[in-house]
Amino acid sequence: MDDLSYGARNKRGDWAPNEPASTAPVFTFPPQPLKFLKWLPHYFLPYNVLFALSAVAWWYFVLPEPEVMKALAWGWVLKLFAANAIAVFLFFGAFELKLYILRSQGNRFKYNGKFPAEQCSKAFFFERQNVDNMLRTFGTGLPIWTGIEVFVLMAFANGWVPWLAFAQNPVYLFVLALLVPIIHETHFFLLHRAIHWGPLYKWVHSVHHNSVNPSPWSSLSMHPVEQFFYLGTMFWHLIIPSNPIMALYQLHFAGFGAIPGHVGFDKVELGEDTAVDSHAYIHYLHHKYFEVNYGDGLIPFDKWFGTFHDGSKEGEKQMQVRYEKKKARLNAKAEAKKSNETDRAGA
Ligand SMILES: [Zn+2]
Ligand SMILES: [Zn+2]
């Protein structure tokens, strides 16, 4: 496919789409019914249906009877851990293999002209982004993922929280399934905004941002504290009356769903002239500029808080204005502190 009919490449080899990034036409005012209807299939396809189906598959093929899940035992926990690890390896690995190892579409539709393998950095274990990202994903990410999952499943199995059956609550649970992405977006935005606060950023979130040029394995490459709170979105189903399959869907949405934002390509080519949109641009811009796009755009939080960057020149200008203001604010604060100290020293 000719990526230059969809976007432009600069001198450094970075490609950007012609269409600026946009948030979903859901929480817009005034409402945009036509745009909404056109967008609606994307709410389900391809990712959300896949994550929901995977939750059902885990329930029937990976997990034991609820009776067994009442107690901790190596058997079912290790089986669950293995299934999670294999699924992540295959799912993330498929993107990695196609786009970064075989490089089947070269750098067509690639936001950053360079491949991480071409750049070594001291920020990473063994100076390699891939190795570092995989060590973090499998070393701490998957144990934390499975740990949270085991705790929530035990809570349901032991009756510590209500377990709503599908047969008795079909409408409620269907609506809850529709809300899973909205719960995720809200949880993610609030958490993400919080860990961009200076001290937490340094201690926790900077690990994820070491990957300035994200690739599939960057998706869950985070500090363990971030992994816990990010995947902990599953805990909401202990507070909201729910069902274990719904809780699994929420977890898979976060775990497997981390990948779309980190693919690094705007479109993944499937043939000569077919391609699927990755929906990665908003989060790519976050990795590039740090202080924009804390959310993924399902709910326009960033527009409401003035931190949205759509990738256009206009978006760039707005970001610069914000930086200048922030700098002025910090300078004023430093000045005030200094004059306070001189006053005190004088007194
Ligand atoms: Zn990221
Ligand atoms: Zn961030």
TrEMBL record:
Annotated ranges, domain Fatty acid hydroxylase: 178-307
UniProt enzyme class: oxidoreductase
Compositionally biased spans, kind Basic and acidic residues: 332-347
Spans traversing the lipid bilayer: 43-61, 73-95, 144-165, 171-191
Keyword annotations: Membrane, Oxidoreductase, Transmembrane, Transmembrane helix
Subcellular locations according to the entry: Membrane
UniProt keyword Membrane present: yes
Disordered as annotated region, ranges: 328-347
EC number: 1.-.-.-
Keyword Transmembrane helix: yes
GO molecular function per UniProt: oxidoreductase activity
Top-level taxon of the source organism: Bacteria
Protein name: Sterol desaturase family protein
Origin species: Labrys neptuniae
